[in-house]
Write a structure and sequence with these properties.
Distance between the termini: 58 Å
Radius of gyration: 22 Å
Number of helices: 14
Shape: globular
Number of strands: 8
Largest sheet: 8 strands, mixed
Strand content: 5-15%
Structural class: alpha/beta
Strand order of the largest sheet: 3-2-1-4-5-6-7-8
Low-confidence stretches: 1-28, 236-254, 361-368
Order of helices and strands: EHEEHEHEHEHEHEHHHHHHHH
């Protein structure tokens, strides 16, 4: 249970209630509670699913808590004291932005806390400068810790509102996956899947944000050199290869969005490109159940098609910056600045170039 002596910067705790439900046979130990590192919206959504589970939530400041975790989980305690939070439980859920993960882990006082039993990542992106996924960053600091990923086609606001949702717990450790599922499975209208391929779920999470950003570009109604108004988008052939230069295209604009045909075309091509890129990076065939499950196709569809998707919104108003975090743009930057971006083709290459050109002073001057 959470310690009774709370530091001054901990928010008031509401009425507590007991955990109910049987523990699966494959679990050899009960998880007494978890620590959330990062008070973001998805952290709040996941915490709301942990009915009756003691939760300690760390944030950098009181202002970073935009959601009252105890409103959905009466056993949630919020604090800005990182060491105190990590002293409560050795089960960590990492919900901070991907680009902040390294800084948070580096700030942990290892002399005052036990090593984590496992660390579950909620982050969907690639670290700029290193090209590393979240689990790879965790391994640099805690090489012995079991790690996993939680993903799925979920909008945090709808999860908090109690709407139906699906999630996948991906870990190479069956015991960890079983424990995470036990923490979540008491939530009504939640369908849980399990995957033994966390690398694939991490990559799908990062790339679906990139493609949702591209979907937002497609939704821009005006013709613009940063949208998909170019023949390469649909592999168009020259209108008349015998006229003019070989391979020349008709100079009429090729405007593909936002028609329903274009949306379907984009999403089909984008998902295929994601799979091809992942197979090249991971150097192995992809697991079909993972690809077609909640963390693969499901999350990709929602992130592209939901009007409230931040990555899609960022694409729709690009190059004007989005006021909220857009992991997809950071991942594009990470792809361009690392070996992962070598030999990129198709939509992924186009999006990397789009972001590069958008901040080119020559383009900004021309478009102003």
């Amino acid at each position: 249970m959470i310690k009774k002596s709370l530091p001054p910067n901990v928010m008031p705790q509401k009425v507590m209630f007991k955990t109910t439900g049987a523990v699966p046979e494959e679990m050899t130990e009960k998880v007494p509670g978890v620590v959330f590192l990062g008070p973001g919206r998805f952290s709040a959504a996941v915490a709301s699913c942990m009915v009756g589970v003691p939760v300690a939530v760390w944030g950098r400041s009181q202002e970073s808590f935009r959601h009252d975790f105890s409103a959905d989980n009466p056993q949630a305690v919020q604090t800005t004291d990182l060491t105190w939070a990590l002293q409560q439980f050795p089960y960590w859920i990492l919900g901070c932005p991907v680009q902040s993960v390294r800084g948070v882990l580096a700030s942990i006082d290892l002399s005052s806390i036990p090593a984590p039993a496992w660390v579950l990542s909620l982050g969907k992106g690639i670290e700029v400068g290193t090209g590393l996924r979240v689990r790879q960053i965790i391994a640099e600091f805690f090489p012995e810790a079991r790690t996993g990923v939680l993903a799925g086609p979920n909008l945090a606001a709808e999860v908090l509102a109690g709407h139906p949702c699906g999630m996948v717990v991906a870990s190479e450790c069956k015991k960890m996956a079983a424990q995470v599922k036990e923490l979540l499975q008491k939530r009504p209208l939640l369908d849980l899947q399990e995957s033994a391929f966390p690398d694939e779920v991490e990559w799908y999470g990062a790339l679906k944000n990139v493609m949702a950003f591209g979907f937002g570009l497609l939704m821009q109604s005006k013709l613009d050199p940063l949208s998909f108004d170019n023949p390469e988008f649909c592999n168009a052939k020259p209108d008349n290869p015998r006229a003019g230069d070989p391979g020349s295209y008709n100079q009429a604009p090729h405007h593909f969005g936002p028609s329903e045909n274009a949306k379907a075309l984009f999403m089909t091509k984008a998902f295929g490109e994601m799979r091809g890129f992942m197979q090249q990076i991971l150097q192995k065939p992809l697991d079909e159940q993972t690809s077609l499950g909640y963390g693969g196709l499901g999350d990709f569809i929602l992130t592209c098609y939901a009007a409230s998707s931040r990555n899609r919104q960022a694409g729709q108003q690009f190059p004007k910056p989005l006021q909220e975090l857009c992991e997809g743009q950071y991942t594009l930057q990470a792809l361009r600045g690392s070996r992962l971006g070598e030999g990129l083709t198709g939509i992924l290459n186009h999006l990397v170039q789009v972001c590069f050109k958008a901040y080119d002073p020559r383009y900004l001057t021309k478009s102003s």
